[in-house]
Design goal:
Pathway (chains A, B, C, D): Amino-acid biosynthesis; L-arginine biosynthesis; N(2)-acetyl-L-ornithine from L-glutamate: step 3/4
InterPro entries (chains A, B, C, D): AGPR, AGPR_AS, AGPR_dimerisation_dom, AGPR_type-1, NAD(P)-bd_dom_sf, Semialdehyde_DH_NAD-bd
Order of helices and strands of chain A: EHEHEHEHEHHEHEHEHEEHEEEH
Distance between the termini of chain A: 37 Å
Protein name (chains A, B, C, D): N-acetyl-gamma-glutamyl-phosphate reductase
Largest interface: A-D, 54 and 54 residues
Number of strands of chain A: 13
Number of helices of chain A: 11
Catalytic activity (chains A, B, C, D): N-acetyl-L-glutamate 5-semialdehyde + phosphate + NADP(+) = N-acetyl-L-glutamyl 5-phosphate + NADPH + H(+)
Strand order of the largest sheet of chain A: 8-9-7-10-13-12-11
Structural class of chain A: alpha/beta
Shape of chain A: globular
Function (chains A, B, C, D): Catalyzes the NADPH-dependent reduction of N-acetyl-5-glutamyl phosphate to yield N-acetyl-L-glutamate 5-semialdehyde.
Oligomer: homotetramer
Strand content of chain A: 15-25%
Largest sheet of chain A: 7 strands, mixed
Chain lengths: 346, 346, 346, 346
Amino acid sequence: MSVRVAVAGASGYAGGELLRLLLAHPGVEIGALTGNSNAGQRLGSLQPHLAPLAERVLEPTTAEVLAGQDRPHDVVFLALPHGQSAAVAEQLGPDVLVVDMGADHRLADAADWEAFYGSQHAGTWPYGLPELPGGRAALEGSKRIAVPGCYPTAVSLALFPAYTAGLAEPEAVIVAASGTSGAGKAAKPHLLGSEVMGSMSPYGVGGGHRHTPEMIQNLSAAAGERVTVSFTPTLAPMPRGILATCTAKARPGVTAAAVRTAYEKAFADEPFVRLLPEGQWPATASVYGSNAVQVQVAYDQAAGRIIAISAIDNLTKGTAGGALQSMNIALGLDESTGLTTIGVAP
Amino acid sequence: MSVRVAVAGASGYAGGELLRLLLAHPGVEIGALTGNSNAGQRLGSLQPHLAPLAERVLEPTTAEVLAGQDRPHDVVFLALPHGQSAAVAEQLGPDVLVVDMGADHRLADAADWEAFYGSQHAGTWPYGLPELPGGRAALEGSKRIAVPGCYPTAVSLALFPAYTAGLAEPEAVIVAASGTSGAGKAAKPHLLGSEVMGSMSPYGVGGGHRHTPEMIQNLSAAAGERVTVSFTPTLAPMPRGILATCTAKARPGVTAAAVRTAYEKAFADEPFVRLLPEGQWPATASVYGSNAVQVQVAYDQAAGRIIAISAIDNLTKGTAGGALQSMNIALGLDESTGLTTIGVAP
Amino acid sequence: MSVRVAVAGASGYAGGELLRLLLAHPGVEIGALTGNSNAGQRLGSLQPHLAPLAERVLEPTTAEVLAGQDRPHDVVFLALPHGQSAAVAEQLGPDVLVVDMGADHRLADAADWEAFYGSQHAGTWPYGLPELPGGRAALEGSKRIAVPGCYPTAVSLALFPAYTAGLAEPEAVIVAASGTSGAGKAAKPHLLGSEVMGSMSPYGVGGGHRHTPEMIQNLSAAAGERVTVSFTPTLAPMPRGILATCTAKARPGVTAAAVRTAYEKAFADEPFVRLLPEGQWPATASVYGSNAVQVQVAYDQAAGRIIAISAIDNLTKGTAGGALQSMNIALGLDESTGLTTIGVAP
Amino acid sequence: MSVRVAVAGASGYAGGELLRLLLAHPGVEIGALTGNSNAGQRLGSLQPHLAPLAERVLEPTTAEVLAGQDRPHDVVFLALPHGQSAAVAEQLGPDVLVVDMGADHRLADAADWEAFYGSQHAGTWPYGLPELPGGRAALEGSKRIAVPGCYPTAVSLALFPAYTAGLAEPEAVIVAASGTSGAGKAAKPHLLGSEVMGSMSPYGVGGGHRHTPEMIQNLSAAAGERVTVSFTPTLAPMPRGILATCTAKARPGVTAAAVRTAYEKAFADEPFVRLLPEGQWPATASVYGSNAVQVQVAYDQAAGRIIAISAIDNLTKGTAGGALQSMNIALGLDESTGLTTIGVAP
């Protein structure tokens, strides 16, 4: 018995990645696919890698189409620009599972939302990062899911064990490199191949990136106190992947062994997160196209800091894979259905 | 009921790709994994993307290990350097399906083998390119399979329909670009990232590439006469993918419509080859990590030539995927089991 | 004593590369810089690599600005979209050297222009490829120069010696790979870094590329008869560089030695073209950022074809460097002034 | 009047870049070029981008060759593996300017050297980073120069103004991304193009990187107290460039205006360092192939940290350009001779 799924925003990178994963999910039937400016076009011309869906035609993103007209959808994924999910979601019934891959329902603090997104806060939904403490319980049976941002996924998973174990001071310093697909498919000059190949560059420096309050929210919850975050994202010359280098001052008395133990404990039973053997470090190539998270941690005694590094695929675990994993939990399916820990490398 | 599979050469790119695919194949149990210089090492340190096999330890490549000692293997894949398969294969029993991913058993002409590989010809096995005329029949029930080279796969699929339909003169001119994984994992200075990023360069120009006689063999079989091949391979700054631009002078009276019809007919029932809609051209990104082949063809009236272009993933359809597809046929399984036409993009 | 130079289209890739070279030219003073949609902006925000010009502000592209108002310009470079140069050039006086980096004045055949560009032919100017037979003489003292297209530069230099020496049949088959800067700086979805990294793809297949008639023109002039050209351009995942693989059937009696001799003779005194030692092949990385052309040629006896391969930097020798080289000749300066044969590698 | 220059290690990336720059230096004559395993080979086969030196043959790296036999060298550059410079340098006379591009003479603290390099300390030479306080004076007239490491160059320039102005706490947290040429030309599997393209990965995490004590040395000198450094280097999929993201907790009372003023003052008269206009951030592409340093700084009030980011070309300003700039100063030449601030972009 399949669940019937609609995808809003099927022409973008997040929507395309979700469709790639849904095609491999044995319990899913793909229903309506919608786009805005691309409505009426064949998917084959927009997402030529999705061969089985090449003849599908995009419909307009309306509540009627997403509800499913003749045959209702059980699940609706919203891969829409930030600020557009809430209006659509409000028109969908309470029995439909709505998975918002945008930012609209991630933040608990309305003031944070307004400061970083400049519009009215739409409310807070259960947060789709099951690996966080209490994360799975919040999703089971839920009809609304807010999928985390890609950077907060990588950063929160790298650093929460240090905070839940009380090993780190509440001041995190994070530098992350992302592949260009994280910036989306809208054609902008600074995202041209000619500009990004051979170049590393930062953006949103100094606290301006919209994912900062989401990291603060997650790490503060783990720490049980307000954690400040210095976050610098950089654009790397690769299509996919996030490498997040996350550091925090170690609390007095911390040892390398204590750090290792905390991380081993945090990820012991996680199907997608792998704490690498000591001495091996994450690489984004190893998780390319997969839902896997590679984590490694070190304690730098001379500098007095814990350094935790994670690698994810920003489109998979960072967006569409995380969304599907959360859907599985919400629907009571095996959490790993349709997802893999095996990267496409080299 | 699973078939039990061994992989010789599990630490290389071809072996790693095969394992990636085997892990997703529902009818396979992965048995012994062997390496030469890497015997005794954990696979997790050599192929960090293959998370489920991280704790596996490589065994030495011997006939005993590959036969399977306590529990015999049903299938043995040989991902060994050219010239090393034959000696191993001879020691494996006639009931084991041996799939040679090296070159040793591809060529029918012993003189060609000796001219291009410089050693004694080991014999000719059924050829693992089911899409060629008569290709599937040759593989059904076979216990020995010679997996085609990556370039011959891309080139033969792009051009054989023009020859079987009698549309092209027997002189093909081919220029192909390959990702660097086609050159293998052995560390050589010219394959360093610093050298290949930002650079295109040819190699084996003027007929010297070892895949040339294999192309001639396939195209001549399709044409029913000797086809000469001018083949220029180039190294492209990407890890995976082959884009093969294949041209041949059109026979008198050829029309664009006749060309289109020949290609539509050749690929109408193929599960992995897709003739793109007119006006859309192949891109290696669209088939990344998949067993799909994208093909497009044009008739350039002014130049009097047919131009057929194909895109494949050199490690998947070009090597390990083609090997698995052929194994499926030989064993009587559904040809597509464990394989996908969906690329990982962007 | 400096010549005073204006650049129309200073915000694009061709204009930026020209400015990079002009800054290193000892006999040039940089006058007005113009743009269209970018007029009024600081160059530092548009071309951040041109540090010495960071505070310059773009002016609108008008005949008055380009003429030079208070202080007349001696040279005006037009780096404008195809079809826009002619109207501007007509308003500039006969004593100003006008160097058109667009296509408007390249083709001798008005019918070709109209077929490929769809507008009225603006006339034919001396052609800025001094290495062609008679090329320098045509430029000396000229007040109008048509800079060749990037592909025709690479292809004509690779193949003309075979034709001038009577070694090749008049049917050329050419496949070239270009870096993405050849497609310009206008933001289009298929040129996004996410799309091009990791991908090779063809375009303009089957004779449709606008550079085809220009190649035919050059090769036919060298051959003394009409040469047909099958030209397939491909987009490669690198910012700069063209690798052109050019083949033609050898005339009866041709030998490898005769081919080598013809090429040695053609390039013996050329400051920018280097016929590599036998066995060494061109690589675009070796000419990155330079005006150098690397050429190698082979005779494939089995296929009966001559294969000539060239590597250039599409923005330097392929556009701005070629323009500057031609300007030097037209003004009677040393041809190499401000230009280098040294690439930036790795 | 030219200075006669020898280069030891001419076949590597540092040596090759130095030769590229020396060829453009008007006051230099290139003398002996040496290599170890490559002695006897043509430079054209090892460094094909250095066209004017293609026919030069590498000599063995001996004191006699470097001294200059018949015609003495005025300057000897040592681009040798770490730990090999000292033995060679000892044999060169006191009147020869010896510029060590390796690490041997950078560190003032012998214990640091022994801890990080595992051999005996060879002594400390004047440090080739003229932009540091007192940097130029130390180099003027010197006959020995220790060229800084590439990471310390990027990091020290980004962060010293915050310390000299007393704005930052003595605990720096640094994450830097480097192009692969920083890892040298020796063929190692993890540096293959297949491995690095599409991947970001860290190395030397937790204080283990040999450049850490050099950063501590420079920043402590600027601060007037011991500065701890948490340094995480990452390998980025590009041939060249370093982007260094450097943060430190702001001292109480610091304001954004004070930070800006300190940086403006520090770089006001520097020919190669450019503090970008507010809102514009460094990109490695902008300094590709140049000796320029782009710097930008922000004060993140919410996190209480100063974030200073620099971009350099690791081979130019980070190695060979820095070496040449220091040579110019030592010899009393104009500091910028043979060097440019103009990057090769896109």
